Amino acid sequence: MVDKIPILKMGKFLLLSIQVDMHDQLAMDLQEDLTHQIVLHRSKGVLIDISSLDIVDSFIGRMLSHIAHVSRILDAKIIVVGMQPAVAITLVELGLSLDGIATALNVEKGMRRLEQMVEDDLSLELESGEDRDFSAEAGD
Known about the structure:
Residues 3-114 form the STAS domain. The chain is α/β, with parallel strands linked by helices. It has helices spanning 24-41, 58-73, 85-93, 107-128, and strands at 7-10, 13-17, 45-49, 77-81, 102-104.
């Protein structure tokens, strides 16, 4: 049995590939590990590859959704890639929506989309002046 799912750092992004059947404890550990890594590396995006998952139960579906929402709160964009048709059907049948979670067919398309999402977000911040440095003005 697998104790942890590896989380790889790729530039400003984190990549994790779920290659094993998830059990409840593994999903909870993944959530904790991922949030820690997002904060540690100040990651701007997370790509989750679920192409190896053949089935997803309601708990795992909720955990994926929860992981995505926590990541967004920590200012990291998230994209789920490689969802098998059976997994998508199961999520719909269970009434689990992945609201606000971007998806892509594969890792390559997912990385391109994640980069675009982060660039778009940065452009909006620059336009609105959110990242302005007021420290120089504080002395005036």
